[in-house]
TrEMBL record:
ATP binds at residues 499-506. It is found in: Mitochondrion matrix. This is Lon protease homolog. SUPFAM superfamilies: P-loop containing nucleoside triphosphate hydrolases, PUA domain-like, Ribosomal protein S5 domain 2-like.
Length: 941
């Protein structure tokens, strides 16, 4: 039977809608991850459908869910006659023409099929779905079936379709779909590993009988297959175990049901109502579901249940339960559960969509109003265009400079960039780069400088108020001011402060900037390994910025600031360049007049900047860089200096920080701190022995916090909330005896390890970045009359110190032969030399005299004076060479209770420059050779 003219006209009008809905419905037969794949084959299906007669479109679309497909899903109703003949319907396959639907397909008897597994979801009867086959065995088998006239296969769902591995496959499919959009080749609906099975236990035994509609080769390894699902089947037995598997199948018959059953009708009505709700909420289903919901036979509950389940995005295992259910009521119930979950998901999606749309609408409205406002203001002359206003701003900055301030190179660069900016679009990336460059060019203080202070007395007052001592540093700054005043011009200088942590290197830099009336800027280069931090980045890089020095000029708005470069001895070096080499140009007075930053790309005059660097040691500073700096050493503070600094600076500062400055605490009303001098000295000697003041300040703050807590607790106990300290002022007077209550047990007891020196032990003196300290050298003989006579050393000695031990051992043997030719101690004794505190690395040559003395003391079995300490490098011939850190070592000697001190003759000038109180009570001997040391060390007191 053929369609009437009216039916053909209806089919013609709905051709595009049918095609669109057909494709959309085939998408819902797949998971959402496969939507892209389904669209990628649309052109292929459209090409075939466009060649078919119009009756095909209408009949085929309705046949999916409304025609008799011999599923036996409704045993109470007869299958309607097919309303169109399929004789004229054909599809192009290669160079051959084969009928699309053959007579007898509806009632074809198929006893065995080849298994084609799906790994995501089952395919219900009536669904047309594409599949890309990559497995060579399965491709060969399907082509053989098609050529032999056997057009049916069995489609079965793999078990554990919703397992984690399936989720991983889904993520792979998403990538395949993206690739298919780029190449135009439909992506595979499943992977090659999932296209064949090796055992029936891998699949569910209930599936669908599908007809091979077309086979289209995509390339050498992929075959596009279009399958038409026709009816449910069940696996009865294995026919052939060769891959792909062939099985004997049986036809599943649906159970009879009561068409007038209220429960069946209720389930059906609820499913239809739920589908309509989904259509309203989810635009993804709207087109094709509206089309089919008007044409589906809602009186057939089996087909209605299949349709409802197929349009959901439920898991494959849940859909398989619907596929296997042959009871009408139970199938409707399971489909209703799935479609209800889909409705809830659609509601959540709708809420999210409304929230996003509301936010977007609000932003769009604000943007539209702002654009309208800009146009209105521009028309009224109230506001200029953004680009015009920006250019005007740059020109105003240029006009603000005095004549002659702006160098010609900078002026030319600014003019060129402004012309370039006028030609660029605001939305281009080059526009932002040019705008940023002009910002930096016009914000630099070309020629603008602060007026400097040349008043010597004012500068001296500022330095004295901020820092105690440091007379040599203060004198050098006053000299700098005097020279600048006489020359009537200021030149840049590079000064390097070297000293232990906490002695005030950074704070003295701030004070110098204040007394000179210069802007202050500090940055640290400790651990810096990127040369771009000094020289800037190239403008071609995203987020490029100038170096630290150019940033300083912009921040301070002065061409003569004081720049403090902190921790210059800790510069790093990596694959991004050597910052120390970049600093060579920056800190060279003869080169920094024309310093070129990579970002600015124009010369900048840095000659008026006063550079101050800080370091703990000079050993790690590269030689060429150190040569460009004037080194000023800051020694550690001794106990009297710490006492004065704590009393005059630290205590008032910490009292203000802790809120105790409002109280008069102490032994008199004039005293505004609650620490006595003996308490501060005890803190210095037993808790804070390092050279700096940072730890001392922390301990004082710790004490004051506890006092503040006690005061507040006492206030809360009084009725008026106030505390009268006039009568109980002694309660908060912190003496040495009360320190234990606030800071705990003393950390240090005494520097002396021995009250009576045994033979072979001598006290030396060491100097580190942390200050001076006593350093004992211990020696003992392991075995006399040993064939292994020699010297072994322990105590984390460095390479230089190891060499000193060898020199000391050689010279001690020579000296012993000179003192007692009959003494053969060194020839027959195995000696062990140790430097205590083995966990602390030690290095340097200054322990040479101490080592020789310890070895001779052991060989002669004679102890040295107990009140003796010494330092100095000894040569192989016995000369005593000068060493560094005399002040620190002298402070350490006095702290250890030493009264006799041996120093190299070459350090006599350093010692005589020390303050009188440091030299007091010390009997100092200056040794030119070791003979002088020997006379002092072994003289009985």
């Amino acid at each position: 039977m053929r369609l009437s003219f009216g039916q053909c006209r209806v089919a013609s009008r709905s051709k595009c809608r049918v095609l669109k809905s057909s494709i959309a419905l085939s998408h819902n037969a797949l998971p959402r991850a496969d939507y892209t794949r389904a669209f990628s084959i649309r052109s292929h299906i459209f090409q075939r459908v466009s060649r078919a007669p119009r009756p095909f479109l209408y009949n085929r679309s309705i046949a999916w869910f409304c025609s008799a497909n011999n599923d036996s899903s409704d045993p109470n109703k007869k299958a309607p006659e097919e309303s169109v003949s399929n004789e004229d319907v054909s599809v192009i396959e290669g160079n051959a023409v084969t009928p699309l639907l053959e007579e007898g397909d509806k009632n074809a008897i198929v006893s065995h099929v080849v298994i084609v597994p799906t790994h995501r979801r089952p395919f219900f009867p009536g669904v047309i779905f594409p599949m890309t086959i990559s497995d060579p065995q399965l491709r060969k088998s399907l082509i053989s079936l098609k050529k032999s006239g056997q057009h049916h296969v069995g489609v079965f769902l793999r078990k554990n379709a919703s397992s984690p591995s399936a989720e991983v496959d889904a993520s792979k499919d998403l990538k395949d779909n993206e690739a298919s959009l780029q190449t135009g080749i439909p992506a595979s609906s499943q992977h090659q590993d999932d296209e064949v099975i090796h055992d029936l236990s891998e699949i569910h035994h209930v599936g669908s009988l599908a007809r091979l509609d077309s086979l289209v080769p995509l390339d050498a390894n992929n075959l596009q297959v279009l399958l038409v699902s026709q009816r449910r089947i069940v696996i009865e037995s294995l026919l052939d175990s060769d891959v792909p598997l062939r099985v004997n199948i049986g036809r599943l018959e649906a159970q009879e049901y009561d068409a007038e059953s209220k429960l069946v009708r209720a389930y059906s009505n609820e499913i239809v109502a739920t589908l309509r709700e989904i259509v309203k909420l989810n635009p993804l289903f709207k087109d094709h579901m509206q089309f089919f919901s008007r044409r589906i036979d809602i009186h057939n509950p089996f087909k209605l249940a299949d349709f409802a389940a197929s349009v959901t995005t439920a898991d494959g295992e849940d859909l398989q339960l619907v596929m296997e259910e042959m009871n009408c009521e139970l199938r409707l119930k399971k489909s209703l559960e799935l479609i209800t979950k889909e409705l809830e998901l659609s509601k959540v999606q709708q809420v999210i969509k409304e929230q996003v749309e509301a936010k977007i609408s609000k932003n769009q409205r604000q943007y539209l109003l702002m654009e309208q406002l800009k146009v209105i203001k521009k028309e009224l002359g109230m506001e200029k265009d953004d680009k015009e206003a920006m250019i005007q701003k740059f020109r105003e900055r240029i006009d603000a400079f005095e004549p002659g301030w702006l160098p010609e190179a900078a002026q030319a660069a600014i003019d060129e960039e402004i012309q370039k900016l006028e030609m660029l679009e605001k939305n281009s990336s080059e526009f932002n780069v040019t705008r940023n460059y002009l910002e930096w060019l016009t914000l630099l203080p070309w020629g603008r400088a602060t007026e400097e202070n040349f008043d010597i007395q004012k500068a001296k007052k500022v330095l004295d108020n901020d820092h105690y001592g440091l007379s040599d540093i203060k004198e050098r700054i006053l000299e700098f001011i005097a020279v600048s005043k006489l020359k009537e011009s200021v030149q840049g200088k590079i000064i390097c402060f070297v000293g232990p942590p906490g002695v005030g290197k950074t704070s003295i830099g701030k004070s110098i900037a204040e007394c000179l009336n210069r802007e202050f800027y500090r940055f640290s280069v400790g651990g810096l390994s990127d040369v771009a931090e000094i020289k800037g980045h190239r403008r071609t890089y995203v987020g490029a910025m100038p170096g630290k020095v150019i940033q300083c000029l912009k921040t301070t708005q002065s061409s003569n600031p004081l720049i403090l470069i902190d921790e210059i001895d800790k510069l790093g070096k990596g694959y991004q360049g050597d910052p120390a080499s970049a600093l060579l140009e920056l800190l060279d007075p003869s080169q920094n007049q024309h310093f070129v930053d990579h970002f600015m790309d124009v010369p900048v005059d840095l000659s008026r900047i006063l550079f101050i660097c800080t370091a703990n040691v000079t050993d790690t500073i590269p030689g060429p860089l150190l040569d460009r700096m004037e080194v000023l050493r800051l020694s550690g503070y001794d106990a009297p200096e710490k006492l004065s600094i704590a009393r005059e600076y630290l205590v008032p500062k910490v009292m203000k920080r802790t809120g105790l400055d409002q109280y008069k605490l102490g032994c008199s009303e004039d005293i505004t701190f609650c620490l006595t001098d003996d308490a501060i000295l005890t803190l210095v000697k037993q808790y804070c022995r390092e050279s700096g003041l940072r730890n001392l300040e922390q301990h004082i703050e710790r004490i004051f916090r506890k006092v503040a807590l006690e005061i507040v607790q006492e206030q809360e106990k009084t009725q008026n909330g106030k505390l009268d300290l006039t009568e109980e002022s002694d309660k908060y007077r912190i003496t040495a005896e009360k320190l234990f209550k606030y800071v705990g047990k003393p950390i240090y007891q005494s520097d002396r390890m021995y009250d009576i020196m045994p033979p072979g032990v001598v006290m030396g003196l060491a100097w580190t970045a942390m200050g001076g300290s006593s350093l004992y050298i211990e020696t003992t003989s392991i075995n006399l009359d040993s064939e292994k006579a020699g010297l072994i050393t322990t105590g984390q000695m460095g390479s230089v110190m190891e060499e000193s031990t060898k020199i000391a051992h050689t010279y001690a043997r020579h000296k012993l032969q000179e003192l007692d030719p009959t003494n053969s101690f060194f020839k027959r004794a195995e000696i062990h030399m140790h430097v205590p505190e083995g966990a602390t690395p030690k290095d340097g040559p200054s322990a040479g005299c101490t080592m020789v003395t310890a070895l001779l003391s052991l060989a002669l079995d004679k102890a040295v004076r107990p009140d003796l300490a010494m330092t100095g490098e000894v040569s192989l011939t016995g000369k005593v060479l000068p060493v560094g850190g005399i002040k620190e070592k002298t402070i350490a000697a006095k702290g250890a209770g030493v009264s006799v001190l041996v120093l190299p003759k070459g350090n006599q000038r350093d010692y005589e420059e020390l303050e009188e109180y440091l030299r007091k009570d010390l009997d100092v001997h200056f040794a030119e050779s070791y003979a002088d040391v020997y006379k002092v060390a072994f003289t009985v007191k």
